[in-house]
Write a structure and sequence with these properties.
Blueprint (H helix, E strand, L loop, with lengths): L1 H20 L11 E6 L4 H11 L10 E6 L5 H14 L4 E7 L2 H4 L5 E4 L11 H22 L5 E4 L4 H10 L9 E3 L2 H15 L6 E2 L2 E3 L7 E3 L4 E2 L2 E2 L4 H23 L5 H16 L7 E6 L11 E9 L2 E4 L7 H20 L6
Bound molecules: nicotinamide-adenine-dinucleotide.
Nicotinamide-adenine-dinucleotide binds next to helix 2.
Length: 352
Amino acid sequence: MQKYLQNTFAKQLNKASFAQFGHSGHANKKPPVRVAITGAAGQIGYSLIFRIASGEMLGPNQPVILHLIDLPFAMAALNGVVMEIQDCAFPLVKGIVATDNQAVGFKNVDYALLVGAKPRGPGMERGDLLKDNGKIFTETGKHINEHASRDIKVVVVGNPCNTNCLILANQIKDIPKENFTAMTRLDHNRAQHQLADKLGVHTTDIRKIAIFGNHSPTMVPYIDQMTAKNHKATVDQQWVSQTFIPTVQQRGAEIIKARKLSSAASAGNAAMNHITTWVNGTSESDFTSMAIPSDGSYGVPKGLIFSFPVSVKNGKYSIVQGLPISPFYQGLLDKTIKELVDERNAVDHLLK
Ligand SMILES: NC(=O)c1ccc[n+]([C@@H]2O[C@H](COP(=O)([O-])OP(=O)(O)OC[C@H]3O[C@@H](n4cnc5c(N)ncnc54)[C@H](O)[C@@H]3O)[C@@H](O)[C@H]2O)c1
């Protein structure tokens, strides 16, 4: 199946690009970059791939070669996704590799959005979830280390994403550890919406907020430095502790209740935002949230994949230092740190 898919794509894309650009080939002057998406046949994959293909993530002048990776049983569905990409005749898509073979899937890849993961089944313990996903991310780490670009930027979306990223990064010997991150941008975006709604402003007016910690119900939405329309903004503490924080922490569960499926479009959107910000940077008057290897800032044990407020410049992020942490926030931080330390202990055997 894999060979069939790759051969088919190569042929049809050549035809398509000739038909669209003739000999002049406008705009797409940059060499293409390779973007890998695991879990490409899943629901987040479906909401993500077409937007990346249209240039929303890396810009309208950046051609892409899509590397779509899923498990063997999902290859038929993935073939359907590929046919749909072809039928969009995207000007920026210069190739598609669709495969269940990670050595092929990660070959020379510049960006990886790791969405594929084993979901938590009914009655499954969190420890088992960690172990099952640990195997997946150990394997993926080995392939990325061996085959991907040395400058690859990785965001782990598949849950439990912080600890999956920790396991993955542990396999990496030849690429900087800073290139391995996990996604809390969805939680950040959710917080931004709740605050904009409360203050009666647009989401883009809300700045200098952040998510600390784990992508789980212990996450800490931090708003003590919030600005709205570039002015310091405050909301009452009771609303923060009793409404705002629980709403952001439980938003994923609320969406499952309503949709009978987990959030997909908003998760895909956030994964793209994560990479776009990593590439293009944050503005001087703002920061964002990324789960990254802790350097010990804010008392977080070194090496944990922990969400921090970060500012980004020239493709490099740095933790925003010196934010005041009230006793209220310190209590919440301690809980999310403990949860991530417990998760790390549960997969200790995979980190040797
Ligand atoms: N970090 C976040 O904010 C966030 C938000 C929403 C969802 N998620 C997580 O994203 C993941 C995917 O969600 P979804 O709704 O797309 O699920 P889905 O079940 O629709 O799709 C998952 C896909 O991953 C594939 N897959 C599983 N293991 C794989 C592997 N080893 N290699 C390649 N592909 C593999 C499956 O075959 C499937 O096609 C879940 O773990 C979910 O919990 C994270």
